Every structure is written in structure tokens, then in C-alpha cells.
Amino acid sequence: MIQKQHYRTAALVSVFVLMCMFRLWYTIGIIFAAGLILTLKDRRRSFCVDYCPMATVQQAVYRQKDPGHDRLLALLQRRWFKVLVAIGFWGYLIAVLILFRGDPQLLWSSLLSLMLGSMAIALILQSLVRKRVWCSTICPYGKVLEQVVTIGRRSVIKS
Fold first, then answer.
1. What is the pLDDT of residues 111-143, one digit of tens each?
2. Is the whole model's pTM more than 0.85, yes or no?
3. Residue 131, SS3?
4. How would DSSP label each residue in 7-29?
């Protein structure tokens, strides 16, 4: 368990250094590539569990008591809500990459806003519903990795 915490902390510090100190707008691409590689290698969402910076922050601020707002959780689990979040997240990301491709400073600040906004939403939801509800229910990248795992399992079964 301690070793996993070291990996989580190292991943979080790496993202902070790349995004905030070096101001590399493509840090989010590095995160996504690392997640995809780990998921393909392990055939499970090990990135989400062991390395995701968002999960690390949520784990760090978690307090043992879950408020358990069941109605909010039911909303978050609805398919249309997950699709809406995915469209918003991926749409914003793609729009920013296209619209600001010629201005690295604006691109960086827009992607940082996406990352910090997602983090704020995740922490608010965690305080209202339960531990890591963002990760387990609506994380757009987690859903992509979930599909990669599903496709990988299907291809192993067919082989």
C-alpha cells in the first residue's frame, strides 16, 4: 500500500511540475498516453487506481464520513448524465486544441482550467455523495479506459 502511495504522489508531483512549473500544455496528453499504455499492459484500469492525479487528490482530502446523497448519486449514474459530461469534457478539450493551437499560452491556460475545473467538481461531488464518486461514476477518461479494457477482454476471449 505504501508503494502505491509513492506512485500516486510521484504522478501528482510530475503533473504539477510539467503543467505548472514548465507550463507544458501537452501534459494532459502525457497523462492520457500513460493511462492508455498502463491499461493496455495490465488489462485493467490500473492507471485510475494507482496513478491518476485526480484520484490522488481525492484520496488525500477524503474524510471517513460519506454524506450519501442518494438522489444526487442516482442522477450521476444516469446514462444521459454521463453522456452529457463526456460531451462537455471532450468537446471542450477538442475545441481548445483546435481553436488555440497557434497560441501556446492560451492553450495552456485553457487546459489548466479544464484540469482544475474537473478537480473542483470531483472534490465537491466527493463531499456531497461518497468517496471518489467522480472516478467511479462520471470521469470521461475513466470511461474511455473502461472501454479499452472491455475491448481487450473481448479480443482475448475470441483468440
1. 999 999 999 999 999 999 989 999 999 999 999
2. yes
3. coil
4. HHHHHHHHHHIIIIIS--TTHHH
Residue with cell 481487450: 152
Alpha-carbon span 57 to 35, nearest angstrom: 17
Question: Locate cell 449514474: which residue?
Answer: 77
Cα–Cα separations (whole angstroms), residue 104 to 23, 26, 78: 9, 10, 37
Please name the residues in contact with 123: beta carbons below 8 A apart, sequence gap of 6 or more. 57, 58, 61
Q: Please state the domain extents for the chain.
A: 2-158
What angle, 0 to 180 degrees and rounded to 10, lies between the N-to-C axes of helices 53-61 and 2-16? 120
Angstrom distance (rounded) from CA 81 to CA 87: 10
